[in-house]
Specification:
Blueprint: E1 7-11, E2 23-29, E3 32-39, H1 47-51, H2 56-63, H3 71-86, H4 92-121, H5 125-145, E4 154-155, E5 158-159, H6 167-189, H7 193-199, H8 207-212, H9 218-222, H10 229-232, H11 253-277, H12 295-300, H13 302-314, E6 321-329, E7 332-340, E8 348-352, H14 354-360, H15 362-366, H16 371-381, H17 385-388
Antiparallel strand pairs: 1-2, 2-3, 4-5, 6-7, 7-8
Helix pairs in contact: 2-3, 3-4, 4-5, 4-11, 4-16, 5-6, 6-11, 11-16
Length: 390
């Protein structure tokens, strides 16, 4: 009897389908994956330790650069942890605007995902369609925050500033048009026989395995597990919004695609409700030692200028304690765990990145699958190495 020989190959770390500097070491029997090991760390930047050497306000700017497709939700998770640490109540208008902006960011992230994932599998047209809508969202984000990818707009205590007058019209125009755009993606892919052959029954993950691996987000819900931070642990008034959590059943690449498409439809539903109920009022909490004064006030009032300078230079000192703030990011549960020793800098900051835990389940997904399906599996998980190698 001839010995069975396996071949070990490297996929990455510089490979167009790994969506970043990820190295997958694959052990193959012909074209069948017998075993795989993901190697990370090629992009390591030490965000957690960098944050511990900065004030809480200064550390906020580092969060944009984790999952760089999702800057606003990153800001939100960090600010929630800080606000829980100091017991700060956020005005209703700021809470509602946070929800609207984070849902826009979710759609933009899912659009980037479907564009690149479809391109990996061989469907090029979707890339141009999805980037068209993503550009509209980034224009809205840029109009509000002044930046496209790294906004640092959601601040500890509220927002950097109120939204401009044209914000309402821009958002309403988008939410009126976008459902028809999702229909176009479905026309191109959902019943496409080639797409279905490349995604159905490929890289499945059972509900039990998904839970055991700590998977969250669309990957978990595609396996039929009904867990969404917005429902389980509501934040920023999400408990007042009416939306459903889309679920799959098989947990394969196709289910992950369908769940994300449905999530975009639900995000439109949430944004619509947010725009209808958006209250008037301040966008920052009344906390003179935490929230800097308005820019207009700084320009005309010496006392406001001094207070602004002191807050930005010295920060604030939370009481000794710890806090955890989590949001449902486009990729899953993104959490920040902060420990305060009473100084103006976090004693310890620990990030719970969804991409990191979701990637850990990939070897289980692709065991026994074809080499070509590894590309489909990695794309369906929707990882960003900036978040993994934080």
């Amino acid at each position: 009897m001839a010995d069975t020989r396996f071949m070990t190959i490297n996929m990455g770390p510089q490979h167009p389908a790994t969506h970043g500097v990820l190295r997958m070491v694959l052990e193959l029997d012909g074209e069948i994956v017998k075993k795989s090991v993901p190697y990370i760390g090629y992009l390591h930047r030490g965000v957690e330790k960098l944050a511990e050497a900065r004030t809480y306000h200064q550390a906020l700017t580092l969060t944009d650069r984790l999952d760089y497709t999702n800057g606003l939700s990153n800001n939100m998770a960090f600010c929630l942890a800080c606000e829980r640490l100091i017991g700060l109540e956020i005005p209703r208008r700021a809470q509602c605007l946070r929800v609207i902006l984070c849902e826009l960011q979710r759609i933009a992230a899912h659009l980037l995902w479907i564009a690149t994932h479809a391109l990996d599998i061989g469907a090029m047209t979707v890339l141009f369609y999805a980037f068209r809508e993503r550009e509209t969202i980034l224009t809205i984000v840029e109009n509000v925050t002044g930046a496209r990818l790294t906004p640092s707009y959601i601040r500890i205590g509220g927002l950097a500033k109120d939204v401009p007058p044209e914000f309402g019209k821009m958002v309403r125009d988008f939410i009126n048009e976008f459902p028809g755009r999702i229909d176009e993606y479905e026309t191109l892919l959902t019943e496409n026989i080639i797409w279905k052959k490349r995604t159905q029954n490929v890289a499945p993950l059972s509900a039990e395995d998904a839970i055991n691996y700590g998977v969250t987000g669309p990957v978990l819900r595609a396996s039929g597990v009904n867990y969404d931070v917005r429902k389980a642990y509501p934040y920023s008034s999400y408990e007042e919004f009416d939306f459903i959590v889309p679920l799959g059943s098989k947990g394969d690449v196709y289910d992950r695609y369908v769940v994300r498409l449905q999530e975009m439809r639900q995000s439109i539903r949430i944004i619509t409700q947010g725009m209808e109920r958006l209250p008037e009022g301040p966008v920052n909490a009344h906390a003179l030692d935490v929230v800097p004064p308005d820019k207009e006030e700084v320009r005309h009032d010496m006392a406001a200028l001094i207070r602004h300078f002191k807050i930005m230079e010295e920060g604030f000192k939370p009481p000794v304690g710890e806090a955890y703030g989590a949001v449902e990011s486009p990729k899953g549960e993104l959490g920040f765990y902060l420990i305060s020793d009473g100084s103006n800098k976090p004693f310890r900051m620990r990030i719970r990145p969804p991409s990191f835990l979701n990637l850990g389940a990939v070897p289980k997904m692709i065991e026994g699958q074809m080499v070509a399906d590894v590309v489909a599996a990695i794309g369906s998980v929707d990882i960003v190495l900036g978040e993994i190698d934080r």
